[in-house]
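Morning run. Coffee first, then this:
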Amino acid sequence: MKTIFNVIKKAFLWSYARNTWQWDVLCVLCLIFIFLTPKSWFTNSERHKQKTVIIAAELVDNERDTARLEQQVRKFTGQVDARIDRVRPKLDETGRTIAYEVDIH
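And here it is:
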């Protein structure tokens, strides 16, 4: 029992010498973890669902008109439950608003 505990302790603390077979096994296990771990383990599901939709400025009076923006987003995407997270105006070179970037989820 003590030898099993020592092996676990050495593996956890990585206290094997660099030229031993235990070191090689630990390196291989690390590489296996790196290359075989699914990407889905590291993605934030809320952020992953978020989309950006561009709505023309002619369709909405201003960026504070969230009801009209939501209506246009739902019409454009076909998602009846789309919710607006953030609105950013897109400006042309003269500073005039030409569209709105709308983050939805």
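The first strand starts at residue 51 and ends at 56. Good start to the day.
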